[in-house]
Amino acid sequence: xxxxxxxxxxxNDKKPIEDSKPTKADGLLxxxxxxxxxxxxxxxxxxxxxxxxxxxxxDQRVVVSVPMQVTDEFIHQSVQKRVRxxxxxxxxxxxxxxxxxxxxYVSGEPQFYLGRRYVLKVIVDPEQAANVxxxxxxxxxxxxxxxxxASDGSDRAAKVKALLDAWYQAKARMVFAERLxxxxxxxxxxxNSPTFKILSMKKQWGSCSAQGNLVLNPHLVKAPKxxxxxxxxxxxxxxxxxxxxxxxxxxxxxxxxxxxxxxxELDSMAEFYLNE
Length: 276
Fold this sequence. Notes:
34% helix, single chain, alpha+beta, four-stranded mixed beta sheet, 3 domains, six-stranded mixed beta sheet, 276 residues, Zincin-like, UTP_pyrophosphatase-like, 24% strand, YgjP-like_metallopeptidase
């Protein structure tokens, strides 16, 4: 199952909905009912949005992104049409809310890449070189021989982890370069493209040196591109504002007005993305 779920088509198989008008709290929080279950959703208006999009997040937030001109009534009607789909995924995520266990690097475990959830599949094929590939919704790790010498399978797990780490490092370098190039024009105070290096960190997504060089966590490539953009823009803002002053937050808001929602999304999945 994807780590964030999207839906853009109507679903007419619904239980009775008990209200027909949107209600609001805190300005952008709306509510409706599916049977006896209350569903809350947040509305985010975006200048560049072309259509209404609904996302159900693993922390059970429902976020509706819409173009600026869309009315509240249209949004509410659209959510009503999709309410069964939303409710079902809220139930699925509720069932998944268990403690995050240490990775064992065996088939069936979840892995993440660019915000989507994949199932790990480990196979042994002496005729292939050891590799990692995304194949039909699975992150497939191929070993050339079975490294299960230890009774607990630790040798094999270590080999799978090493291959996955190398794969994530390579993907991170490629994706981060692409996203840095994409967001750099927004940071008009940065005159030369900064360099960046990849460094695995337990508690930080990134950092910026006094010389303007970026350090980015390879685990960040497991997050959606918008979250990657947020981290990069955050660090680019530090090139101009070296601490978290009011000027820093104003600058970040200027280049990413909805950064708080993006940060919340990233924070909600941090323990999954950083779990090793």
